[in-house]
């Protein structure tokens, strides 16, 4: 940045004008992430919260679980609100979080009976959801403290998060070195880049478990949000929410979101699949498949505020979970009780239980390979 522009910005800041109101995004000097204490774990480990802002989006991230504790975006009148469910304290995250805002690993969603066979050897991983494993097991990546390295690069600001999962952790083979990068762009997009390498063949399926409510995290249900998903098929599940292996057509079912409809429109239809997860809790088979660059797959819009979230990903699947297990027993960061449907998750990933379904896209990672996955969240109003 040349000195004359810097002088303009400093002058504007002194006059009480924020960078955002200057209008041209490139005129804004990128602010460095700010770190504040967020509490201490029982073993004495200190947890920090990082605050980032760019292009009108404000993000707060915990070193514990890489958790998005707050994500604020403006409505059509420029009013910011937090659109992601979460808690105010570390204690709440440790004791009772249903994965609010967290990074999920080593394997997002379920593996049947926590068991799979790789190269002729059967592995038993931590079982924490009835007889199955969910989101990596009892102590998944959502419950680990990540090393966080802030950065600014050109007009981007972000965080690199590092976690090494040792060979045998939660039963998974191979030491997995994981790097996740959260970037806020000058347009206010939130981009997630996942990378991982291993020293033994293993399975990997990383994702982010933000619960969205574009009207604000304490505003009631998301049933009036409009959603579209670019998927003609989904993976039906059994009573334990394990895919049967079938790729079923969405046409003529409550799972058809190819044209935008409200989340609530078909949620009470007496379709047997809706009984298993007490609502929508399924993997959509994205029509675009695996791509080297993120492709658009879903749009979520809150008509009342105008806030719109567009999601693009390299992944072949989307787990859309309509917050069915929120039951009024948790008090969120806005001081209200979260009830069923108060937030929804759009988790870009490979299909659940892929290690037990050879016909699904593979989640196997071998030494010498690098796991890469990217998801971009774009906001407008
Ligand atoms: C995922 C699963 C759901 C539920 C939530 C967490 O989205 O698909 O069944 O377990 O995580 O509560």
Automatic annotation (TrEMBL):
Active site, UniProt feature: 209, 347
EC class: isomerase
Query: Where does the secretion signal sit in this chain?
Result: 1-27
Q: What reaction does this catalyse?
A: alpha-D-glucose = beta-D-glucose
Q: Which keywords annotate this record?
A: Carbohydrate metabolism, Isomerase, Signal
Write the Enzyme Commission number(s) for this entry. 5.1.3.3
PROSITE patterns recorded: TAT
Any Pfam family from its record, for instance, is Aldose_epim
**Single GO biological process annotation from the record:** glucose metabolic process
Pathway as given in its UniProt record:
Carbohydrate metabolism; hexose metabolism
| Superkingdom per UniProt | Bacteria
Q: Which GO terms describe its molecular function?
A: aldose 1-epimerase activity; carbohydrate binding
A GO CC term assigned to this protein in UniProt: cytoplasm
The residues the record assigns to binding beta-D-galactose are 109-110, 209-211, 281
Membership in a protein family: Belongs to the aldose epimerase family.
Q: What is the protein's name according to its record?
A: Aldose 1-epimerase
Organism of derivation: Streptomyces cadmiisoli
